[in-house]
Amino acid sequence: MESAENQKPEEEQQEEEVVAEAEEAAAADAAEEAAASEAEEVESEADVDAPAEDSVAAELADAKDKLLRALAEAENVRRRAQRDVDNANKRAISGFAREMIVVADNLHRALGAVDAATAEANEAMKTLLQGVEMTAREMMNAFERNGLQKVDPTGEKFDPQVHEAMFEYEDASKPTGTVGQVMEMGYTLHGQTLRPAKVGVTKGGPKGDAPKPSEQILAEAEKDKNAESGKVYEDQGTKSGTHLDEEL
User: Fold this and answer.
1) Which has the minimum average pLDDT: 6-20, 91-105, 180-194, 206-220?
2) Buried b / exposed e across 46-82, counting CB within 10 Å, b at 16+?
3) Superfamily of chain region 150-230
4) Where in the chain are the domains?
5) What is the pLDDT of residues 147-198, one digit of tens each?
């Protein structure tokens, strides 16, 4: 009787099994919902991070571009400054050189004023003349060592950029506008005119060609051209740093 009473009715056992299965199904559904929710959150975070990564990449590219531009501009400034310093060093002695070429002119005038026959007859004068010649020759060597060159334009086409016309004279044997006489020699310092030559120009002959620009004018034009194109880095559809690499 007691064992029969302790045993649950069969119907109650079935109800308990049904309840247990329902609880297991509910737990499984809850786990699935939690997993789906977590997946949605991860996907949402990924969607948020993607634009952020694109923004960071764009900022890095912009910073690199600005850096390369700054480096290119700094390199251009350095080159221009170095060129200006070099030109200043070359032209630093121009004032002193102008004074010295006057001394050279006087030496050559002194040599031209002495009659060779008279100097041969007088031993003292001959010795003095030789000393003046040696002084003039050594001065010209010193000029050349320091970039100072004498210019004799005889027979050249008159060029107002490097010559100073003192007069014109008739000479049908030469084209009009030819330098026929040189009253005072010209000088250049490192290829640039320091003192134009004072000349006499022919006229009456056949018409000559127009003079070509002097080396000084060509050099100044090239310098201006380089200065205008000095902005080596400009955005023209090329990749960042392209012009900088070419400059360096």
Assistant:
1) 206-220
2) eeeeeeeeeeeeeeeeeeeeeebbeebeeebeeeeee
3) Head domain of nucleotide exchange factor GrpE (2.30.22.10)
4) 8-87, 93-146, 150-230
5) 899 988 988 899 888 899 999 988 888 888 889 889 889 999 888 888 999 9
